[in-house]
Amino acid sequence: MTVQIFPPLEIPETLAAGPGPGNTDARVLKAFAGAGIADHMHGDVLRGMVECKHMLRRLWGTTNTYTFAVAGTGWSGLDTMFAAVMPGDKVVAFSNGTFSGIDALTLRIKAATPDEHAANPLDPQAASVVVIDVPHGTSVTGEMVEAALAEHKPKWAFMAHWETGSGRINDLRGFSDACERHGAMGLIDAVSSLGVEDFAIDDYPGVAGWASCPQKGLCCLPLTYAPVSFNDAYIDSLRASGAYSYVHNPLFEARHWGIVDGQDVEKGSYHRTHSAYAVSALHESLRIVLSDGLAKRAHAYRTHEAVLREALEAMGCEVTSNMTSLVVLNLPPALAGREMELVQNCRARDFGIWPTLSAPVQVRIGILNLLDRGVITKIVHLFAQALEELGGEVDHDSVTAILDSRYGTCVAA
Length: 413
Hints:
Elements: H1 26-34, H2 43-60, E1 66-72, H3 74-82, E2 91-95, H4 98-111, H5 114-119, E3 129-133, H6 142-152, E4 156-160, E5 162-163, E6 168-169, H7 172-182, E7 185-189, E8 207-211, E9 224-230, H8 232-241, H9 250-256, E10 259-260, E11 263-264, H10 276-292, H11 294-314, E12 318-319, E13 326-330, H12 339-347, E14 354-355, E15 363-366, H13 373-389, H14 396-409
Parallel strand pairs: 2-3, 2-4, 4-7, 7-8
Antiparallel strand pairs: 1-9, 5-6, 8-9, 10-11, 12-13, 13-15, 14-15
C-alpha cells in the first residue's frame, strides 16, 4: 500500500480582521519559537509561571489569589469557571448573541440532572436554568438583570461582558450591582474585553468568577493559556459542592500554578504537562500589555474603531455594534442579502473578515492588534473594493477625507 505524503503546509500571511483570534504580536511569536527548551519543569519555565500569575493579577486588577490561567482557548477558561455549577443549581443566564448562547447551553449542561440529560443529551432543558434571550444587536441592561434576579433568585447569574456574536457591550456595573442586591454569584465571560477595555474586576464585587482567552485582547496564541479569576465566595462554594471535573476543576488547576488553600506556595502540586513554549508566549504577551498600559490600549481601540466606523458608514453601511475592537454592520440596502458572498470574496484574498454566526447575517470587521493608521486605512480600502466588486458605489473622496481628517486630529497609537 502506497502511503501518500502531503507536501509541507504553507499558510500565507493573512490580515486577521475578524472578531478573533487577533494578529499575534511578532514579539510573542518570537518568544514562542525562541524558547530553547522542551522540559516543562525547567526552573526558568516555573519562574515564568510565577511571574505570569502575578502579571495576571495586575492585568485583571484584582487581589484574588485564585487568579491563574488554564491551558487552551477561551472555551477552556469558561469550562473551568462553569465547573462550580452543579446539577440542580439555580442559574439565570443572559443570551444576546452566538457566544453567550453557547455559554447558556454550557450552563444548562452543567446544571441538568441525570434525567434531564437522558431526555436530551446534547441540549438538556435544565429546569433550574432560566435563559433570558435578549434580541441580537441589543445590549443586556442593568434593568434586565435586576428584573430577572429579583424574580428568580438564582445561586448563579451569567452574562458575557462583550458579546462578539453581535458586537454588543453589556452592562457590567448593572450586572454586578444586581448580583450583590439579590445574593447571586455572578459569572462573566470576558473573552473579548480583557486587554481591550480598561477595567479592574475588584470594582465589581457582585461577580464571583471571570474567564477570558489568550488570543484576543492579549494578542497571544490560541491554545496557550486562558486567564481566569475567582473570589473567595466562588472558592467557598466550590469547596462545599465539588465539581464533576478533574482537568478543569479550578482547585486542581490552581495547584498547578502553586495556589493551595488560598495561598501562593513555592511549588505546584497538580500535574499538567504544560508547554514551555506556551508559558513563554503568555509571559511575553502579558509583559507587552502591561508595558503599554490598559488605559493607553483602551484609548487606541476607541480611536481606531471610531475612524473605521465612520469610514464604513460613509460607504452606506449601518453599524450596529458598540465594541471598540469589532465593528458589526449591515451592508448598504442595495447589497442586502449578499453578506456571505462579500465575506467569502474578501477571505479568498486573505482579508480575514467574518460573518455573524447566527441570524441575522451581518459582517464583522475586527481590529485586534491592528492599532495603526496604515492598517486601518488598508482595511477601509480593501472593504471598499469588495463593495464595488458586488456592484456597490463608494465615494472614495469622502472616505479619504474622513481618514485624513480623523487621523489628523487624534493621536493614533
